[in-house]
Specification:
The structure is a single chain. By secondary structure, the chain is an alpha/beta fold. The chain folds into two domains: 31 residues, no CATH class; 223 residues, P-loop containing nucleotide triphosphate hydrolases (Rossmann fold). Helix content is 46%, strand content 14%. The protein has a five-stranded parallel beta sheet with strand order 6-7-8-5-9, with helices on both faces. Strands 1-2 form a two-stranded antiparallel ribbon. Helix 3 packs parallel to helix 6, helix 7 runs antiparallel to helix 8 and helix 9 packs parallel to helix 11. GO terms for molecular function: ATP binding. It holds the Pfam family IstB_IS21. This is DNA replication protein. InterPro entries: IstB_ATP-bd (IPR002611), P-loop_NTPase (IPR027417).
């Protein structure tokens, strides 16, 4: 018996029928038909945009713990959370996809960054005498107020609307990037990581400034932030550092571009840690 092609073997069902995710186009994402002149032409299948959304979602690298995060389940329990929520929606409104001539779509992407930073940064807290830290931490808490939840929700909405979004977590991303550069001498792995964050319509940088400072890392921050600054592509970021301590962690030149490009979309945030409240309720 002659072997069937591998693709056909994968698609063949129990009864010898080919199974496709979309029976209309047979997973080609295009449907062939004859026009009035009798020529074969193709039009996009209805599944094309749905599949594109799935690819954008997969490529965004949304952290597993925020898979279910959305605007609807974000709890606005304080004025600062209400302000964060409203600012995020105001920023979302700046993104548009316009349909031009011949059905071509054009992405309208704001050049401004959008960030949440602390009033009193983590680095400042560590520099205090140990006896003073608990009181200052309680007064200026910036942890567990929903910064990442909101920005992941923003990412999901943008992905659904047709934008390419990439989310990185500072410590893991910087370690991967520096390791790839060291091991491959700026080979394919390193270049791929850079391309992902430089080419995305929107880069969401979670907990930026968390990793310990080194001169090579400062150069890496500058490379990414400066390239996106030059190409007018926004960075959405959050940090447990304040303006000053963030500049010390990522470098003053990088911070000038990151923070300066945020303008009115930079919020200094602090409030009650909902994770602690949730944990207390769990043990009642």
């Amino acid at each position: 018996m002659q072997n069937r092609p591998l693709e056909k073997q994968k698609q063949q069902g129990e009864h010898g029928e080919d199974n496709y995710n979309c029976s209309a186009c047979k997973d080609t994402e295009f449907i062939l038909y004859k026009n009035d002149d009798g020529y074969d032409v193709a039009r996009p299948c209805d599944c094309r945009e749905r599949n594109a959304w799935k690819r954008r979602f997969k490529n965004s690298m949304i952290p597993d713990e925020f898979t279910n995060s959305n605007f609807e389940n974000y709890q606005r329990l304080s004025k600062v959370q209400e302000s964060m929520y409203q600012s995020t929606f105001d920023y979302l409104k700046l993104f548009k996809i316009e349909t031009g001539t011949e059905g071509r779509k054009k992405k309208i992407i704001p050049p401004w960054n959008f960030g949440f930073v602390a009033v009193f940064g983590e680095q400042r807290l560590k520099e205090l005498p140990s006896s003073e830290r608990p009181a200052v931490k309680q007064k200026h808490n910036n942890y567990g107020i929903g910064k990442t939840h909101l920005q992941v929700s923003l990412a999901k909405r943008l992905i659904k609307d047709g934008f390419n979004v990439v989310i990185v977590s500072d410590v893991m991303f910087m370690e991967q990037l520096m390791q790839a550069k060291k091991m491959s001498d700026e080979g394919e792995s390193y270049n791929q990581l850079l391309r992902n964050v430089l080419n995305a319509d929107v880069l969401i940088w979670d907990d930026i400034g968390k990793v310990n400072w080194t001169e090579p890392r400062e150069r890496m921050y500058y490379t990414i932030i400066n390239e996106r600054y030059r190409s007018q592509k926004p960075i959405v970021f959050n940090s447990n550092e304040d303006r000053g301590s963030l500049a010390e962690k990522i470098g003053y030149a990088a911070a000038s571009r990151l923070i300066g490009q945020a303008d009115e979309f930079l919020l200094e945030t602090e409030g009650a840690d909902w994770r602690l409240k949730k944990g207390a309720k769990t043990h009642v």
